[in-house]
C-alpha cells in the first residue's frame, strides 16, 4: 500500500506544481482575480494533501487498512474538492457550464476533513 500512496502523492504533487505554474503564467490574464484565487486555492489544497499522503505512507503507527482508508478519503477528496474548483474557476473559458459541480466542492472538502479527523482518531486509539 505504501508504494501506491507514495506514487499517488507524487502524481498529485506534480500536477499541483504544473497547475500552479499554469495559473500564474497562463491564466493570470484570462481569469478575473476571484477565479484565479479560487484556482490557486485548489492547487494549495491539492499540494497540502499530497504531503499528507506522504506522511501517512511514512507512519509506522498506522496499520495497512488504516492507511488504505486515509488514502481513499484523500484521493477522492482532492479529486472532488480541487478538481471541481479547477473546473468552476475556469468555467468562463470553456463551452461547458460546470456550475452543476458547485455542490461537489464541499463534499470533497468534507472527505478531506474526514481524513484528518480519522488520522487523529487512529493516533488517539493507538496502543503503545
End-to-end Cα distance, whole Å, is 23 Å
Q: Main beta sheet: strand number and arrangement? A: none
Number of domains: 1
Structural shape: elongated
Residue stretches low in confidence (pLDDT < 50, at least 5 long) are: none
Give the oligomer, counting copies of the same chain as homo and different chains as hetero. single chain
Reconstruct the topology from this structure.
Elements: H1 2-27, H2 33-58, H3 64-89, H4 104-125
Helix pairs in contact: 1-2, 2-3, 3-4
List its traits.
128 residues; elongated; 78% helix; mainly alpha; 4 helices; 0% strand
Describe the structure.
The chain is an all-alpha fold. The chain has one domain (2-125). The protein is built from four helices and no strands. α1 (2-27) runs antiparallel to α2, α2 packs antiparallel against α3 (64-89) and α3 runs antiparallel to α4 (104-125). The longest helix is centred in the first third of the chain and has 26 residues, at 2-27. The protein starts with a helix and ends with a helix.
Short description:
The protein has 128 residues and is mainly α. It has helices at residues 2-27, 33-58, 64-89, 104-125.
Amino acid at each position: 500500500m505504501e508504494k501506491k500512496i507514495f506514487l499517488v502523492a507524487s502524481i498529485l504533487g506534480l500536477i499541483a506544481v504544473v497547475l500552479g505554474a499554469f495559473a500564474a503564467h497562463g491564466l493570470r490574464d484570462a481569469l478575473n482575480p476571484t477565479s484565479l484565487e479560487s484556482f490557486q486555492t485548489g492547487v494549495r489544497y491539492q499540494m497540502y494533501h499530497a504531503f499528507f499522503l506522504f506522511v501517512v505512507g511514512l507512519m509506522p503507527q498506522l496499520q495497512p487498512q488504516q492507511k488504505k482508508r486515509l488514502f481513499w478519503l484523500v484521493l477522492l477528496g482532492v479529486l472532488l474538492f480541487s478538481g471541481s474548483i479547477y473546473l468552476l474557476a475556469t468555467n468562463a473559458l470553456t463551452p461547458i457550464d460546470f456550475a452543476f459541480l458547485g455542490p461537489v466542492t464541499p463534499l470533497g472538502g468534507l472527505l478531506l476533513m474526514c481524513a484528518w479527523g480519522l488520522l487523529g482518531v487512529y493516533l488517539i486509539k493507538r496502543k503503545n
